[in-house]
Amino acid sequence: MSLQTNDTGRANTLWRYSVSSKGIGPGTLVYEESDPAMSLGVWRSRDGQYVIMQGSSDSASYIRVLDVTNAAGVLAAAANT
Asked: CB-based burial of residue 71 (10 Å sphere; 0-12 exposed, 13-18 middle, 19+ buried)?
């Protein structure tokens, strides 16, 4: 997983890459935040089973979770604040 930034310097896209003995494959867009005020962060759970993504701004935040064993999976909403 990799975050990329927009013109304002905020991380706004999350990409998935496949890694093999042949190298790193092309990236697949997993999530794109369209609100320019929001910035993304990404972490892996302690057990390595989940990727946790947080979107946040000065006034709101949300969390989405992806099960890494499901290669075609989508980020599921976990919490909004």
From this structure: exposed
User: What is the spatial distance between Cα 39 and Cα 45, in angstroms, rounded to a whole number?
Assistant: 20
Nearby residues of 57 by Cβ (< 8 Å), 6 or more positions away: 35, 37, 38, 39
Closest Cα to residue 64, out of 72, 39, 49, 74? 74
Task: Name which of 29, 78, 71 is nearest 55 in CA terms.
Answer: 78
CA dist list (Å): 13 to 20, 22, 29:
23, 25, 7
Entry pTM: 0.76
Summarize pLDDT for 22-57 with one digit per residue, the tens.
878 778 888 899 998 899 999 999 999 999 999 999
